[in-house]
Write a structure and sequence with these properties.
Distance between the termini: 59 Å
Strand order of the largest sheet: 3-2-1-4-11-6-12
Number of strands: 13
Structural class: alpha/beta
Oligomer: single chain
Number of helices: 9
Shape: globular
Order of helices and strands: HEHEHEHEEHEEEEEEHHEEHH
Strand content: 15-25%
Amino acid sequence: RLRMDVGKLRAGLRQASHAWRARIRFLLATRSLHASSGPRTKSEPSLIIGLTTTPPRVGAVWATIATLLRQSVPADAVILTVGENVFPGRRLPRSLRRLQTRGLQVMWVPEDYGPHLKLIPLRRSYPSATIVTVDDDVLYRNDLVHTLTQAAAKHPGTIVGNRGWTITWSTHGPAPYFSWPKSGKAGPRTGSDDLFLTGVGGVLYPPGEPRGDAILDADAAVRVAPTADDVWFWAASVAAGTPRFCTGAPYGQSNGLDGLSPALLDTNRTENDAQIARALRHFELEEWARARGIPA
């Protein structure tokens, strides 16, 4: 029994040590953040930055938002979309309430439907806006929006991101997701059909894109790709015929709290392939994917 107690004590100490190290990394990563002028004020925003978060991560998302409020090319609105069912009474931490005085907007929706909240409600409400989606655990460079909008100006009607993978193809379509890094990170030379943008680097969706109502079907998004918004938005853009482009440009760094709260990467290590397969079926893209595959 003593050995068991000692083992539990050691495990607890290791966990506590990991938590403290993560907190220290967070403090170091955020030490340079300071007040900013915030977004421009417009009655009907034409350039929006959208993100979402979860209860385990809401205490640290202020740092990400602070970097979004000090962009060299300011957005008309920075909007955090969250579900009322996971934040009872619409209670948010003081850090976010302070940022609301600096321009942060909070969009409340009745039901949380995961990472898809960063785009679907915004596209419904602002169909004519350019929307840049970001993740909640990255400290973004202050030229993030500048980089994306400059690339978008050169590639009109195109979904633009800073980070992505070159899809590895097999005889039946996409190879397993975690074999894609072997093909290398995507860049400006990666063809649209071979490009899978990842939201961590920031993704710009031009007005009305991806086209069609299918992308706005939140119920289908949750059913098909519950934890992989990147998969849902990728398949929707392919189905709509919207081209994709990757700048390959630097975009920021982790907020240092990796591992303290659930990360979609951990879930998607095992579930992305199933979600990709379901998305291809849902958008009727299986023949397209097989045509992209390597001939046997």
